[in-house]
Design a protein that fits this description.
This is F-box/LRR-repeat protein 15/At3g58940/PEG3-like LRR domain-containing protein. With 260 residues, the chain is of the alpha/beta class. It has 5 helices and 13 strands.
């Protein structure tokens, strides 16, 4: 019975990791994924997750797979693609059915300024993505109903100017300071919840955050210690907290500073 039922599943997950599987198994994996997608008869998919780590991969075939799931009114897309030099096609940035998306591309340029139209997207998570201030602004302008934005170890970007009244939650994880990013500006007058978190990575140097306008904030969790503050934590952190509190009206959450 399963021989026929599997073609109707609405949640499809594939993963290939060269640390766990020998590269010689890749053709078998590719054949299985391709056969599964071509045989899937559902007109809509709830979730498609594809994880490919550390192997050379046919970019045209990857395009074909994504086109296939996009045609099935996909709602949740999760991509962990450690694939050399893959360029997302222009049509990837135009999808009316996507509600949630999680992208991990291993410190590469994932978005190069294409016009974006994700009209149903409410949740976006970008991990290890290189994206500039201008690009993130264009990207967000194409997500009119986006409610949640999560940035995990993103590169290049040094400010967020969020004017959309729908975006209520922002989470920033392991934002690293570098030569061009000593400060990170946040201007988000409609934001309700803000989390800035540094996980247990003692080597990570975090930029100083400036809050331009977060006047609608009701919850804030600042759980990190900028490396440049460590010698003077008692003086620096009250200053950061004071600046944040001065710019808001209704905070009922908490601010916490963790010292590694």
């Amino acid at each position: 019975m399963w021989k026929h039922l599997w073609t109707h599943v609405d949640n499809i997950v594939f993963e290939f990791d060269d640390h766990l599987q020998p590269s010689a198994k890749l053709p078998e994996f590719v054949s299985f994924v391709h056969h599964t997608l071509m045989q899937c008869t559902r007109p809509n998919l709830k979730k498609f997750s594809l994880c490919i780590f550390g192997v050379k991969f046919d970019h045209e075939l990857l395009d074909e797979w994504l086109q296939c799931v996009f045609k099935k009114k996909l709602e949740f897309l999760k991509l962990d693609l450690i694939v050399d030099d893959y360029c997302y096609p222009e049509w990837f940035y135009h999808n009316p059915s996507l509600v949630k998306m999680e992208i991990n591309v291993n410190n590469s340029w994932w978005y190069d300024g294409h016009t974006v139209s994700w009209t149903s997207l409410t949740s976006l998570q970008l991990s290890f993505v290189q994206i500039s201030d201008e690009q993130i602004t264009i990207l967000l302008s194409g997500c009119p109903v986006l409610e949640t934005l999560v940035l995990i170890e993103t590169l290049i970007i040094s400010s967020l100017n969020i004017k959309s009244p729908s975006l209520k939650t922002l989470k920033i994880v392991n934002m690293e300071e570098n030569g061009s990013r000593k400060w990170f500006d946040i201007d988000a007058p409609y934001l309700k919840e803000l989390e800035i978190i540094k996980t247990n990575q003692t080597w990570l140097s975090v930029p100083r955050f400036q809050f331009r306008n977060v006047s609608s904030l009701v919850y804030a969790n600042l759980d990190y210690t900028p490396k440049s503050f460590e010698d003077d934590i008692n003086i620096a952190w009250p200053g950061v907290a004071a600046k944040l509190l001065k710019s808001v009206k209704h905070v009922v959450g908490y601010l916490s500073a963790s010292k590694d």
